[in-house]
Amino acid sequence: MSVLIAGSLALDTIETPEARIAEAVGGSASFAMVAASFFSPVQLVGVVGEDFPPAHLDFFRSRGIDLQGLQRRPGKTFRWSGKYLPGFSERVTLCTELNVSRDYQPQVPQSFRRPHVVFLANDHPRLQRQVLDQVEKADFVICDTMNLWINTAREELLALLPRVDLLMLNDEEARLFTGQGFLLKAGRQLLAQAGPRAVIIKKGEHGSLLIAKDQIFLAPAFPLEQFKDPTGAGDTFAGALAGALARADGVSPMNLRRAMIYGAVLASFTVEAFSFDRLRSLTAAEIEERFRRLREMVSFD
Ligand code: AMP
Asked: Which pTM was predicted?
């Protein structure tokens, strides 16, 4: 029932229209594994530098996350900084410092090599491939990516995708990757050309769209009155989806849909605070309450 998650662990500096936070714990794997840990046992493969505060690792352990696949290397942790424009209309990356992840070689511990679900969270496609090369057997492989890798490591990403069951990316990235303006066309093109079995295109506050050979599904985002910081929403969505799928009895179309709704629910909590702070105190009852309310909001028959 376990989920293997590989991706970045970062220290993020973020400016929103209302506030700024420096060196907050972030990274694609951090958000994803905390979200997944609400549903199933999680195993992490990643790297941090000497400066990564041990308190964050204690928190991951407190969520039951297995850190045997985490390397601590001499040097600085991956850093990312971004700024949201007024009204959160757009996000600009100000700086990406790879630091210890530049020449890092992921090592998947022997006991992690047969997980139920693998989630390759956003990272260089070379690292994603190196992780997958060490996995002996998995029922379902999910891969996330972003514009930086589509622009700078396109061939490596394309080579990875036939080995992936579900590709996740956001609407802008789907358009960038395919050159298609319409998301359904972009998704169909990715299925036909790149080789994953399914694609999920994330559309921020407008929800997400699953495109597979045999189904299309629209998952709403949970409507919020206000939010603080959308950073990590996509990683949280994907991590919760991976965890919920690992917990389910197989990857049926209905289990995939339900997992997308859990993804939307967890992401709605993440954006209410900086970093994954809201998830620190989150309870299973709060998750189920939003799941129920979301179901109610889309029932019309
Ligand atoms: P999201 O808001 O879902 O795009 O995720 C934001 C998180 O992704 C931040 O915590 C960053 O540290 C991390 N991140 C940003 N750029 C990259 C990158 N190029 N590779 C891996 N992780 C990244």
From this structure: 0.96
